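We append the chain.
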Amino acid sequence: MSRNKRVVAAAAVAFLAIGASACGGKKDNSSSNGESSSSGGGKGAVIVGTTDSVSSLDPAGAYDYGSWEVVDSVYQKVMHFPTGATTPSPDAAKACTFTDPKTYSCDLQTGLTFSNGDALTSTSVKFTFDRMLKIAAPNGPSSLLANLDSTTTTGPDKVVFHLKNPDSTFPSVLATDAGAIVDEKVFPADKLLDGSHIIGSGPYTLDKYTAKQQASLKANPKYKGTNKLNNSQVVLQYFSEASALKQAVKDGTVTAAFRSLSPTDTQDLKKTSGIQVLEGTGTEKRYLVFDAKVKPADQKAVRQAVAQVIDRAGIAKDAYNNTVAPLYSMVGNGIEGHTDAFKDKYGAPDTNKAKALLSAAGITTPVQLAYAWTPSHYGAASADEATAIKRQLEATGLFKVTLSSTEWQQYQKDEKSDTYASYMIGWYPDLPDPDNDVAPFLTKEPFLGTGYVNPQILTLLSKEQGTDDKTVRDQAFADIQKIVAEDVPIIPLWQGKQTVVIRDGVTGADKALDPTMFRFYELGSK
């Protein structure tokens, strides 16, 4: 989830297979209930470098990958995705079941405590979900809980979730970090927690935190969950530049690097003695988003003309050294229901076809188009990507592109406020379901500014969200993708891989490289 609010579908389907190409070892999807071995390997800290940043340490305000890396480590959830799995399993819960299509009932493990010793009970869970919905922070994940009507308790160990509509993927929603359980004695009920003194019941505690510099995660001795820790401490080092992260790996001041080295840096590190580069199946996607309320993106012919000339293979080659794959639909490659809708409609890049589209609409060329991107969130290669898009469009003679860059915090606000005619968005799905790739962008109230609402798409979304019939859902997604290719509120560009760079002596990186979240607790050291 790079910047995302996700609307949830009604049925889980097949997801991308998980794998690591440069390191052997079979993934262990098993887990054990009861007290975990918090200290794990206990052979010192694993130091992980990243160019990610943290927007919020409070789960109610955290909805970006950098924040969720910490949230996922410090807080426990009712359900979770075990390493390598796409089906949720109980975590703070010992058992959960649908008692009817709109009622999901969970029995919690007994004796759960937060890291400060406070008891974690059904009251804590109810408080967490009531609070999330009440605060509804603009940059938080409350939209994931849009179908949650209320939460009730029966005794200290039983919690019941009452849904507005049937939703068989609700267990997966609980497994996202929107379901991170907070201490009702520590967190305010109606606003985000100030500061960095956060309390959870997850595998780690946040020992120290300095914004944009470092987060120290230490094994939580009170953790009672299903994840087995293979280290006693993980230190996250934050870097503003990928080049500095690369140098830190070479120097050995970090022992693992995850998100986001440039493709050139990665290729160079592959040749460096004592360093391994591991690759796994990725879910990251990049979209070019239009805001149909901002000129000239308010004209469909302009959006179609851009779609007609954009060269995805060129972007993959010029900006990413072919470490990403062209993407021709909002539904990701390898996801159930995917079609190559944009390829089917537009074929190969064609300037003459784009010119005809603009001419038929009476649009004078060159079209003046502004394109925005952020240098502080999507990695160093995002600058090359923005430049490649500008170069491709201007090479047709049909467009004059003005690039602008904004720091991430401001970018998050601007993308929702009809500021940009077109702009860059990265996407990580929260759930293993195709709905999660499309619905957040195409609802009546999308999480960002598209200025686009299509009643036919809304009907199709409602249809696929209300059934677990694969045939019905696949047809609905096929129709949605066809409409998106026609109206072009968004142009899908590429889908990437996950990459982690480790120094010799770091273990477990192949398991840590999981599509749902990078698993710090899988890392160890020899």
Observations:
- The chain has 15 helices and 21 strands.
- Residues 470-487 form the longest helix (18 residues).
- The first strand starts at residue 45 and ends at 50.
